[in-house]
Amino acid sequence: MTQNLFNKVYDQHVVGQLASGQDQIFVGRHLIHEVTSPQAFEMLRERGLKVMFPERTLATVDHIIPTDDQARPFVDLLAEQMMSAIEVNCAEFGVELLKLDDQRQGIVHVVGPEQGLTQPGITLVCGDSHTSTHGAFGNISLGIGTSQVAQVLATQTLAMKRLEVRRIEVNGTLASGVFAKDVALHIIRVLGVEGGVGYAYEYAGTVFDAMDMEERMTVCNMSIEGGARCGYVNPDETTVEYLRGRPLSPQGEEFERAAEWWLSLASGPDAEFDDVIKIDAADIEPTVTWGINPAQSVGVSKAIPAVSEFPEHEQVGVQEALEFMDIQAEAPIAGLKIDVAFIGSCTNSRISDLREAAAVAKGNQVADGVRALIVPGSQLVRQQAESEGLDKVFTEAGFEWRSAGCSMCLAMNPDKLQGREISASSSNRNFKGRQGSPTGRTLLMSPAMVAAAAVNGCVTDVRNMLG
Amino acid sequence: MSEVKQITGAGVPLFLDDIDTDRIIPARFLRCVSFDGLGEHAFEDDRKQDTNHPFDDERFANGKVLVSGRNFGCGSSREHAPQSLMRWGIQAVIAESFAEIFFGNCTGLGIPAVCADREELKKLAAAIEAQPDLEVTVDLEALQVRYGDTAISCTTTEEARSALVSGQWDFLGQLLAEQPAIRSTAASLPYLSNFA
Fold it and tell me: What is the Cα–Cα distance from A204 to B108, expressed in whole angstroms?
């Protein structure tokens, strides 16, 4: 038996063991944003500390920034205060910040890979649970709290306990109209929202072998929704080719040496795992959530399950979800009316997501009464989409074309649901109140499914709209 | 840092599963540069929709020990969630299970997060409902939760228990002490030495 990727990378980053038993782990790359960093910098000031490796941290702004009028000062003075705080903190502590006037600005989990910062074999942390996204490159990428952000700034390390590793193999071929998002939602439904606690997920099998990097990022991004703090895909030629030529990738001969090392990290055929799960790609349909956690989902051709189909201990939660969503058990999910369509977030706001949505939107019109937003994940994604004419496809179909940010995924900026609105969303969480209205409702699905819902005004099987 | 061996106080029963950190502290309250003032907004949206929410119930206003269900603290990594609970007055959380990032954030704030059997938690929540001033003790040395005449066993990770009991739950000082080892690990990493 040989070591899996997680353990190889973990071992290389162990600095030592703390008295309480945790390992001290070196952090190769640290990403910060305006929401979870101000208190961390304050902790450094209180203790008179500096940033130990300022060049290992990169800052961007994404959560609070408006995606329409971005003139400073922001209309929301609290958002303006946070923006000013990260500008002052990064300047004072010597950390590079991608501001709004920098075309590299965007959602932290879109920017890292796009710049070539996210690489195989590293450890990467960020004060954001969707840091698991970066695991698509074959590394250990973890979300952390603000006290840990301070620890990483001051020491480039954090205290942690080694995770167990569960290999999730998805074999077969995804049917047309079935996307990476559907794979993620399917896995979460099968294993549950806390099934991954204590595990790193290794995603493998022919479905992941065939995926491009953006698709892998979508699935790794949702690892945390299944309880796993990190998820990864073993590096392969797809990984290497994605990284070739990116601004922060190694260049020239160094790149070839890097690629050799990256590929050597992959779990071998005899690698050891703490658990193995196998899933058949043929079982995965376009998937839509009907409840208030990301495991409460169903294939679009199916009915919302009956309460009695759940184990007894889950039934109270299922009943709570049905009441909050105000939907009927055993009714079909297709045809459920929506008020808002949102395509964006660190899960699904990359160029391939926008292409898939545009293919559905093209030549159609957003249904009457539906408010539809496209929020690219970064300014570079936005530029790329514009160079392909996707912005025109969307605006001609009646979608709003916005600037980069987290936007209505968590609605810390002005993009919010109102009252009881229902949103078809390409984001990652359908929690109560997640999209900005305490009583607002969210249906998670792939970007193509959101586009299909937008033009039909209701949940629609995108397979019926693709040629 | 102070040693955290035992927390004793009144309980707050919130026996629900999958309470996510967006519910504990809705995202709009994250528009801040300090954790001060988050206590009053804990569970704000749940409280508006449920007039019987325990965080609004005078009987539990002095509660220190929160009792909840499965997968408590799932979702966002926001440390604002345990910060808001702590500032509301919570000093320990007992649940069937915890999401991992939330659990780590609690430990780093000196808040014990311990797991107990579901049926026992239901009984505990009912006992608190029946007698809101009932004293509940979370004992990290004995790994027990005690109330009235009842003692139930609880679990947590050995690392968290050890850090809390020994008063070493603020890791910053310990991590800082290892600067030479940190630099030596950095120097050994291929990606910090041109992959040579």
Answer: 34
Helix (H, G, I), strand (E, B) or coil at B128: helix
Q: How far apart are CA A294 and CA B20, in angstroms?
A: 11
Closest CA to A119 of A264, A239, A13: A239
CB contact under 8 A, A52 and B158: no
Locus of tokens 């399950």: A305
Q: Are the C-beta atoms of residues A344 and A377 closer than 8 Å to each other? A: yes
Contacts of B193 (CB under 8 A, 6+ apart): B187
User: Distance between CA A203 and CA A412 in Å, rounded?
Assistant: 31
B interface test, pick of A12, A15, A32, A137 with most B CB neighbours within 10 Å: A15
The radius of gyration of chain A's CA atoms, rounded to the nearest angstrom, is 21
pLDDT tier for residue A467 given thresholds of 50, 70 and 90 = low
Q: What is the pLDDT of residues B126-168, one digit of tens each?
A: 999 999 999 999 999 999 999 999 999 999 999 999 999 999 9
ipTM > 0.95 (yes/no): yes
Residue A129's Cβ-side half-sphere holds a number of Cα atoms within 13 Å equal to 27
Closest CA to A371 of A399, A335, A348, A332: A399
The SS3 assignment for A418 reads: coil
Chain A residues with beta carbon closer than 8 angstroms to that of B22? 410, 429, 431-434
- Contact status, residue A13 vs residue A28, Cβ threshold 8 Å: yes
Which residues span the domain enclosing B13?
Answer: 6-169
Q: Which residue of A has its CA nearest to B34?
A: A39
Query: DSSP state, A321?
Result: H
Q: Which of A127, A161, A58 is nearest to B171 (CA)?
A: A161
Residue of chain B minimizing CA distance to A416: B28
In this predicted structure, the answer to whether residue A20 has a pLDDT above a threshold of 90 is no
Sheet of A275-280, strand order:
A230-233, A199-204, A164-171, A275-280
CA-based nearest residue in chain B for residue A227: B99
List chain B residues with CB under 8 Å of A317.
Answer: 16-18
Confidence of residue A1 (pLDDT cuts 50, 70, 90): confident
3-state secondary structure of A441: strand
Q: Is residue B191 part of a domain?
A: no
Residue B184 lies in a domain: no
Cα–Cα dist A467/B75, whole Å: 37
Task: Check whether B1 has a pLDDT greater than 80.
Answer: no
DSSP structure class, residue A285: -
DSSP assignment of A181-211? HHHHHHHHHHH-TTTTTTEEEEEESHHHHH-
Do the domain assignments include residue B192?
no
Model pTM? Answer: 0.98
Name all domains of chain A by residue range, CATH numbers in brackets: 5-160 (3.30.499.10), 164-283 (3.40.1060.10), 288-464 (3.30.499.10)
Q: Number of structural domains, chain B? A: 1
For residue B33, tell me if it sits in a domain: yes
Find the CATH number of the domain harbouring B70.
3.20.19.10
Q: Do A129 and B71 touch (CB under 8 A)?
A: no
Strand partners, B9: B136
B97 pLDDT above the threshold of 70: yes
